[in-house]
Structures are given as structure tokens and as C-alpha cells.
Amino acid sequence: MKNLFTTLSNIWKIEDLRVRITNTLLFLLIYRVGCVVVLPGVDPASLNTHAKEGLLGLLNMFAGGAFSHASIFALGVMPYISASIVVQLLGIAVPYFAKLQKEGESGQNKINQWTRYLTIGITALQAIGYLKSQIGPEARLIADPLFTIVNVFVLTSGTLFVMWLGERITDKGIGNGISLIIMVGIIAQLPGAVATEFLTRTGGQGGLVTFVVELVALIGVVMFTILIVQGTRKIAVQYAKRIVGNKQYGGVRQYIPLKVNAAGVMPIIFAQALMFIPAYIPSLFPSIAANPTVMALANYNSWPHNLLFAVLIILFTYFYTAITVNPNQMADDFIDDIISKITLPGSIALAIIAVIPAVASMIGVTPIFARFFGGTSLIILVGVILDTLQQIESHLLMRHYDGLMKTGRIKGRTAIASSAGSTPPVI
Fold it and tell me: pTM higher than 0.85 for the full model?
């Protein structure tokens, strides 16, 4: 405990770090206040609550509850994430974007500009869909088309403002701003989820012992996720010796750290996007809605759904690793072979983490609490916290203070990805 207070005191002594942490907290506070501001012309008491369930519940979690409350930040930063993914994939298929990726800072500025333009378009389209599907006539205090026009503008402006907040956190605060905003939205749902689970168990469904066992299992899953996020395979690099005069230079051995999970959370996001399709098949083709296979694939808690989900994650892990980690920039076939070998266990572990929430729901854990047992939310939480702690530790070490750990160093995702020669994931 004494070491903890000493570390906190050292953090507060560093003026630059103190200002950055304060700025980060203030920007995040602004975001959380905006999450409770309701769209104009919406009656909050008449809103439906189905957005808290299923896949929509996951979107609501990323938006910090703003999605289900019809907030001005209801769409959060997800349109920006979608635009970033599209632009990143365009860098593979379109020569113009591939050229921009190789032009350094000027090329990155142009890519950021294209990403912002695409974010506006995606947000406007998603805003229309959100207003039509999530806000029924009984909750509208303004008639169409004025209601739709006004709120499409408000939702688009809200997403752009959240994106701006994320950029300010990155520049003036500590950590990656967009990632921190998503993380805060997820954490905001945790107290309510734990309270709901506690009341459910102590109310007669399993008892207090079951609740404690669930907490222990959650800690175990978090530790396993940290292991996967931090896991690296070190490739030794031996530098040649040089003799200049009477002195010898070089001859040291260093390492290239290749991540076991180089793709981060992106394979899960890609796979989840495709798993939306089975859920919409019954509404598009009512004649096959009663088909057992279709019903099983559309059911979030079914084994066929989660088996297909796991297979897609493994395939997308290989795909995303192939496009972000270029072994030709580091070496030839040797590194390519190692990447292929370590990607398989990494992709399987990622698939296991992704389906754990569904398994938890199957054995009786409440859906909102089960989401914290794995999946996108847990990987984002672990990755963002490690990244932020790694940046704080870097500030401490630069000022010759002790790090956050007695032994070893905290390894953030971005630092490892960069040293491995890959492009860091968006999240």
C-alpha cells in the first residue's frame, strides 16, 4: 500500500503528466454529461428498452448507455471506427490510399481527412436508421419530417464532437482518446451489471456463493485476456561486430517482439458485423423464418451461432494479421512462417474469449453482466488500460522514478505493434 501511495505521489509531482491526466478526466466528464442529454423532440419516458438486449445491447454498451437513452451521443464513435476500418481496407485495394499510407505524416493527414468525410456520411445514414428503428411514434414530440431532419443533424454533430474530444485527449491528455471514450462507456455499464447480478443471485437464483464464483471466474477471464493481449514471441536479432581502432562496437543481441494477437479486437468486430446478417434474415425472408437452422444462427445464445462466430474470428484474425503485419518489411520467409504459427493459437484464444459471454448467458448469468466475461468489451478494456498505464509508466521512467510494477515493464498494445512492424489497430 505504501508503494502505491508513493507511485501516486510521483505521478502528481510530474507537472506535464498531472496536466495531461487532469485534461483527460475533464474531457471524459464532458463526454459522460453529453451521454445523458436527450435528443430534441424525444420523450424519454416513452422510449423502448429493447436496445439493451442482444447485439443492440453491445452497441449500447460501447455508447455508454447513450444508445438506449436517445442521447445526442447515441451513435458514439462507432461511425468513426467504421470509417477508419473502411479507409484502412482501401489502403489494400486502392492504389491511391496505398500510396498515402507510405507518404509519412502528409499522407496520414490526408487519410485522416478522408476518414472524417466518410464519418459524416456513415453517421448520417446510421442516424436515419437509428431514428426509424429505435424511436417510435409514441416517443416523438415533433412531427416528421422536421423531427428526422433536426435529429440527423444533431446525431451527426454529436458524433463529430465525440471524435473531436477523442483527438483532444490524444493530443492534450494521456492515452488514445477514441479508445478511452469507448472504455469509459463500457465501464459505465459495469456497476449496474454487477448490482443486477447480485440482486438476481441473492434473490433466490443461486445465492451469494454463486455470485462469488462468478466474480472469481470473471477475474480468471480477465487474467487470460491480459495474457493474450501481452503475449509476444521474441525473435533474436544478432548485430555484427565492428572494430574501430581499439574499440569493438555491435555484436549485441536484440529481439523483434511479434504479438500472439497482432490483430487486436478487429477480427471480433468484423465477425460481429457478419453475424448481424442471420439476425436480419427472418425479417427479409419471412418464408424461411421458421427454419431451425436460420433460427439457431440468429440466436445469440445458440451453439451454432457461436461456433460460426468463432470460425469467422479465426479466419479474420489470419486476414487482418496478413494485411497489418508485413513480414517483407522485417525479413523474409522465416518471420512469415513464425507469424503463421503464432497466429493460430492467438486466433483460437481470441475466439474463446469472444464466445465466453454467450456461454455465460447459457449457464444462467444475466445478459448484461455476461458481456463483461469476454468479447469485444473485455479486450478493449484490457488493451486500453494497459496502453494508458504504459504511457504513464514511460513518463515516470523518463523522470527517473520507479515504474508501476516492482518487476518488469507494462507493455501496451501500440508499442508492441509498432515495434513488430504493424499498423496499430483502430481500437
Answer: no
